[in-house]
Specification:
With 270 residues, this protein is mostly beta strands. The chain is 4% helix and 35% strand.
């Protein structure tokens, strides 16, 4: 069994080694990780180590729910290094030792976008890299891996530090790396109504207007649906690329680079 995965409490700094195929979290003394709190169900959630690359978090129909990076999960969710798991009044950071614990620490956290995590329990200044749900299998949708680009994190930190955002109103942003708006921040504000969909293109009717001749009038659509983010090309002239690869429809994640024509943008969940 893999022993490189850890859950570290942000309240007590205690580290739990995920050395079993299934680790049970809850209020019961029978749980592998017992949390003595009335906010937890007896058997609240489980962490499943599937293989050397895949760890799944599952809510066990708990009363108060299980959250990943402030979002309540409704289905088994794949964990990524730096994800914050909230169960009742306890918070854990998921650590993959092959990535390195220090990799989860950088300055964006100090901007207060995860207010309360650093202040609770101790003076931990760990930056938690956020993301929305990561679903194990989504048939028919291509999934691109996040590029290992340290400059992206530094770019994010500078841009996000300039403007405080409310994650309840703006769940994600695009940071422009090239083109006429290079260095600017585009907010993906929650639209009015139930549909969480943003159109991108040169037209002034788009939710995200990209004034560049390489961008089509109605170039692409970003949507958040069933717990994951995806982008879909709208039969544009110059296409859509994700992490350097052309896609027509693809799930994407925190830190991924989206190219619309000649405009490159880094996606960031708040």
């Amino acid at each position: 069994m893999q022993t490189k995965f850890r859950l570290k409490s942000l309240r007590s700094d205690q580290t739990h080694i995920l050395d079993k195929a299934s680790t049970l979290i809850g209020r019961s003394s029978q749980c592998d990780i017992q949390v003595d709190s009335g906010l937890l169900s007896r058997h609240h959630a489980s962490v499943l180590v599937v293989d050397a690359e895949t760890v799944i978090l599952k809510d066990l129909e708990s009363t108060n729910g299980t959250f990943v990076n402030t979002m309540r999960i409704a289905r088994p969710t794949r964990l990524k290094h730096g994800d914050v798991i909230t169960i009742g009044d306890e918070k854990f950071v998921f650590i993959d030792l092959e990535v390195g614990e220090e990799q989860a620490a950088y300055d964006v956290f100090e901007s207060g976008q995860f207010s309360g995590l650093a202040a609770e329990g101790n003076n931990n200044r760990t930056m938690i890299e956020s993301s929305f749900f990561r679903v194990v299998s989504m048939p028919g949708i291509e999934v691109q891996k996040e590029p290992a680009d340290e400059n992206n994190s530094q770019f994010m930190a500078r841009a996000l530090g300039k403007k405080p955002l409310d994650a309840h109103l703006t769940p994600a942003v695009l940071l422009v790396k090239s083109g006429i708006k290079k260095g600017s921040l585009i907010e993906l504000k929650l639209p009015v109504g139930v549909d969480r969909e943003w159109s991108l293109g040169r037209s002034q009717l788009c939710d995200v207007v990209l004034e560049d001749p390489t961008v089509s009038n109605q170039h692409a659509v970003i949507r958040w649906e069933n717990g994951y983010w995806e982008i879909q090309d709208n039969r544009s002239t110059n296409g859509v690329s994700l992490n350097g690869k052309k896609v027509t429809r693809s799930v994407f994640e925190n830190g991924d680079v989206i190219a619309i024509g000649n405009i490159k943008m880094v996606f960031r969940v708040i």
